[in-house]
Each structure stands twice: as structure tokens, then as C-alpha cells.
Specification:
Blueprint: H1 14-24, H2 36-51, H3 60-67, H4 69-78, H5 81-93, H6 104-210, H7 222-238, H8 245-281, H9 301-312
Helix pairs in contact: 1-2, 3-4, 6-7, 6-8, 7-8, 8-9
């Protein structure tokens, strides 16, 4: 088999080339007539093409079609069996197993179809890869979208629950504030009532002390008891609109009368003891009547009793 370096176009003489070029202008009205310069250019191109080698990738059978039938037969006879099988498979792929390339136009048509087929095969491979990748991305996006929708639904549910709890919390807060306000008012009211009741509750304590047989006018708690009794009488007198005003006023006055009787008894007893002691010291002296002249003015009976108590103990 001849090497690619030896595979050249068939040699044509200048005369044959001129005849072929003149055949181009042989028509009466040619579409694109050649000028003399263009004709010379064709001759120069032919001369340059004689020295150019054919591409190694060009099928040998195509070279044979471009030259002559005899040359094609010679090259075909020297092709190895594997090369013929490869070429046959290529033509079968292009659906050209029953066609032969005999002209340049057929070669260009075959080459164009081959290029389109190669582009389609290459694009098909990338399309498959891209389609698989895009399908995977689409599945991932669908999964993410599903998760996002689920998260949005969950967030909407949480928002509804938050609004519900917030509303209930606000209502509870307002109710608590109202209860605290009412509690504060009730505490103030209870303290006020307790303060008012303290004067009435003191009645029982004062009455029990006055009725006690061990009570003495000289005891330390007697004077504070009289002061508390005087405060209670003044408070009851300043609130005549109370329901049990007459009852408690009477009871407090009774306690005051008991205290005055105790002081009177203690004063009389003290004066009698003092008279007896003076009589023992001066037996021959005539009896002198003891009298107390009070030049003081008192606001309450308790003040008078306290003054008498202090003077009787001197």
C-alpha cells in the first residue's frame, strides 16, 4: 500500500486545465464568468495543489473516487481487511453502505453529514450527562421545596399557637393586674377596719383587767390602760354613725366608772392609813380634818383620776 506522501492528485497539463476552465465559460450566458486574472489564479491554485499532500484522515476509498476508477481499484486491493471493516461500519452508521463517493460534491455531502452525526453524538453524550445531572438537581430542589413547605406550615402553626398564647397571656396579665389592684384595696380596707376595730377590741381586754381581783392602782399597766380607755371613748364619740355606737359608748363609760371607783377606793384607803399613822405619832393632838383642794382643771375624768392617784401616793 502506498504511503500518504505518495498519494497525490492526478496530474493535469496546462492545456487540460485551460480546457476545463474554458468549459466553465462555454455557456452562452454564464452565471459567473471568469476573468483573465481569475483564470490565471485557477492555474496557480492547480500548480500549488499538485505539491500538497492529502490528509491522512481521508479514507483511501474517497481518494480513489477523486482520482480514477483504475487507481481506486489498485488502492482497494491493497487495503487490509480490518480497515475495510472499519470503513464499512462507518458507512453503515451513516446509511451510505450502498453509496460510493465519486465526486467532490459527494465527498463534501458525506463529510457534512459525518460532522453533523459527530456533533449529534457528542451533544447526545453531554445531553445525557446534563439531563441526569439536571434531573438530580430537580429532585434535590423538589425535596428542598417540600421541606420548605413543611417548615412554612410548621411556622404558621407555631405563629397561630403563639398568637393564641399571647392573647391568653395578655388577658391573664390584665386579670392579674386587676386582682392585684383589688388585693391592694382589700389590704388597705382590712388595715383600716383593723385599725377601727382595735378600739372596740380593746373593750374586752380593759374590762377583763378591771374585773381582775389582782388589779392594783399602783401597778404599771394601770395608767396605760386608763389612757387607752380615754382614747376609745373619744373615738366612739367621734363616730356616732357606727351601728353599735350607743352600746359601746355605754360599756366604755362603765369601764371608766369602774376605774374611778378603784382610784377612789385606793385614795380613801391611803388617806385613812395616813390619818392613822399621824394619830399614832401625835396622840394628844386634836383630830384634824384632811381636805384636798384642787386648783387644777382637767380635760377628762382619766386625767383627774391620774392626778388623784399620784397625789395620794406621796
Amino acid at each position: 500500500m502506498a504511503s500518504p506522501a505518495e498519494q497525490r492528485l492526478p496530474e493535469l497539463t496546462d492545456q487540460e486545465t485551460r480546457e476545463k476552465v474554458s468549459h466553465w465559460d462555454r455557456r452562452a450566458d454564464p452565471t459567473a464568468p471568469l476573468t483573465d486574472t481569475q483564470t490565471e489564479s485557477v492555474l496557480e491554485i492547480r500548480a500549488a495543489a499538485e505539491a500538497a499532500l492529502l490528509p491522512a484522515e481521508l479514507p483511501i476509498e474517497d481518494i480513489c473516487s477523486l482520482t480514477s476508477r483504475s487507481l481506486r481499484s489498485a488502492f482497494t486491493a491493497t487495503l487490509p481487511e480490518s480497515t475495510e471493516e472499519v470503513l464499512l461500519q462507518g458507512f453503515q452508521t451513516l446509511e451510505l453502505e450502498n453509496h460510493r463517493i465519486q465526486t467532490a460534491q459527494q465527498f463534501f455531502s458525506w463529510f457534512s453529514k459525518l460532522q453533523v452525526q459527530m456533533d449529534q453524538d457528542e451533544a447526545s453524550k453531554y445531553r445525557c450527562v446534563t439531563r441526569d445531572a439536571l434531573q438530580g438537581y430537580q429532585e434535590q430542589c423538589d425535596a428542598i421545596l417540600s421541606d420548605v413547605n413543611a417548615a412554612l406550615e410548621h411556622l404558621q402553626s407555631l405563629q397561630k399557637q403563639y398568637l393564641f398564647v399571647s392573647t391568653k397571656t395578655g388577658t391573664l396579665h390584665e386579670a392579674c393586674e386587676q386582682l392585684l389592684k383589688e388585693q391592694s384595696e382589700l389590704v388597705d380596707l382590712a388595715e383600716s377596719i383593723q385599725e377601727k376595730l382595735s378600739y372596740f377590741n380593746a373593750l374586752e381586754n380593759i374590762n377583763s383587767k378591771l374585773n381582775s381581783p389582782t388589779l392594783s392602782v399602783n401597778s404599771e399597766g394601770f395608767i396605760p390602760m386608763l389612757s387607752k380607755l380615754d382614747e376609745c371613748v373619744e373615738y366612739v364619740l367621734s363616730h356616732p354613725h357606727f351601728k353599735d355606737y350607743p352600746v359601746y359608748l355605754t360599756k366604755f363609760k362603765q369601764c371608766l366608772s369602774k376605774a374611778m371607783l378603784l382610784i377612789k377606793s385606793h385614795t380613801v384607803s391611803t388617806l385613812q392609813n395616813l390619818t392613822a399613822q399621824l394619830s399614832k405619832r401625835v396622840p394628844a393632838a386634836p383630830k384634824v380634818q384632811v381636805s384636798l383642794v384642787c386648783k387644777h382643771s382637767f380635760d377628762t375624768r382619766s386625767d383627774c383620776l391620774i392626778w388623784l392617784f399620784h397625789n395620794s401616793t406621796k
